[in-house]
Amino acid sequence: MEAIVYEEFGGPEVLRRAQVEDVHPGPGQIRVAVRAAGVNPVDHKIRNGWMEAAFPTPLPATPGSEFAGVVDETGAGVTEFAAGDEVLGRSATGAYAAYVLADVGAVAPKPEGLGWAEAAALPVATLTAARVLDELAVAAGETLLVHGASGAVGSAAVQLAAARGATVVGTASPANHDYLRVLGAIPVAYGAGQVDRVREAAPQGVDAVLDAAGKGALADSVELRGGTADRIVTIADPDAAHYGVAFSAGGGSRPDEGRRLAEYAEAAAAGGLRIPVERAFALREAARAQELSEAGHVRGKLVLLPGEH
Question: Which residues in 142-207 belong to E strands, given as ranges?
């Protein structure tokens, strides 16, 4: 089957298109013909070799962890899905490929009204945001600060936190401020003077911080939390330990992952949850997609479409 592979760690130039051995599902798994695969910042971090401590990666490797597509083979004991079902989820094999394997507990039905690209944009962003909001115990009446609020995880966190009844302040470039207002956040520009701007936007103080930017926001976050690292979580800054801040790497699936993902997919299909797709690429353009992701400033998601040429 066709897939994107890399045989050494490095920049986007190490990615190449290749024919690799086909995959077949084991017990409790399904095989899915991929219609769209999400591109996430963690993909280029793993490719560079920066995440070996958290995600050891045997080479050669195929990037990607989220997909939307059509079930075409089921493993032993699978009753939840059948060939022909349209699904989205997190993969057990690299998603930058024609086919992926997935554990049934990490998959949800794709609603008819949700496009392939939009479906592939959901799993990592929504499940990561929900996991960190749970770790922070964000509750109604509290104020959450989200760094990198216009990215995919940030966008999901803003909406899910607002749905919990929290006030959300989001940092982003000024070009994304109107977008954040639509999502339900109070926008604040990042950079010098950020602490003062957040205090002006949230005079009641900040109860918790989610850092999805990974660009030096932790010192300001600790200051805004009154000098404590308590209730600050980053998913993007490798200097977390220097500030005493928790780094949430994820990994592994939760027992309720498929159910949660099904709820988010239904909400997205109904227009109640937005993870916009900024740009879609053919699978052969994976290096370009990762290059854009690594450069930052992407609003929402980038996706790959294996069927496009």
Answer: 143-147, 167-172, 186-189
